[in-house]
Design brief:
30% of the residues are buried. The chain is globular and about 55 Å long. It is mainly alpha-helical. It contains 11 helices and no strands. It has one domain.
């Protein structure tokens, strides 16, 4: 659709051919969070369309390149809904989830997107994914609490996740200091997700 069309104009132009309307801003956020430092996304959507990042985010590859990341973002966003602290950690968790699942999802793009578009028919698959995402959020916020400081100098959760390289620091935390029990639950959930995706 033309970038300058309103939602109503886009729907009118497409008729009933499409079930989902994907906003370019959300697509840019999803791709950027998976590929770039999540700090960049926290600086605002407009910057993703600047000359500095545009060719990285919109690199002209296939639609699946964008939509795989878009639907994973939707699942991470759903897991953060209702939890204020998770909203600030969302982009770091999305980057982490893509680092763990990107290859698996990309190898079965059609199945993954179809499952996300038809959640009533893919409950087991999405439940396994949501369990893994939930564990990632729990560990990411544990990472925050261990590193925010104490007393009046403690860093607020919003400011903490609005700094460069948090995704790298969280990845190192996960490997070296993360809860062994959480890592076990995470790996188990990912294995079930991969199995359900293969069979879906």
């Amino acid at each position: 659709m033309r970038k300058r069309q309103t939602n109503a104009e886009a729907r009118a132009a497409s008729g009933s051919r499409f079930r989902f309307l994907v906003r370019k801003e959300e697509l840019a956020q999803a791709v950027a969070a998976c590929l770039l430092d999540p700090y960049i996304i926290r600086q605002g959507k407009e910057g993703l369309f600047s000359e500095q990042y545009y060719t990285t985010v919109f690199d002209g590859t296939s639609g699946s390149h964008y939509l795989d990341r878009y639907w994973l973002m939707k699942r991470v966003s759903a897991a953060s809904s209702g939890y204020p602290e998770r909203a600030y950690a969302k982009w770091v968790v999305l980057h982490f989830m893509w680092s763990k699942l990107g290859r698996e999802i990309s190898s079965r793009s059609d199945r993954f997107r179809a499952a996300c578009e038809q959640p009533r028919h893919s409950e087991q698959l999405l439940q396994s994914l949501h369990r893994a995402i939930d564990v990632a959020f729990l560990e990411c916020l544990a990472f925050y609490r261990q590193n925010r400081g104490a007393g009046p100098r403690a860093v607020d959760v919003s400011a903490f996740f609005n700094r460069r390289n948090r995704h790298k620091e969280f990845g190192a935390h996960w490997d070296e200091f993360g809860s062994a029990a959480r890592r076990k639950r995470f790996d188990s959930s990912l294995a079930r997700f991969a199995l359900h995706l293969k069979q879906w």
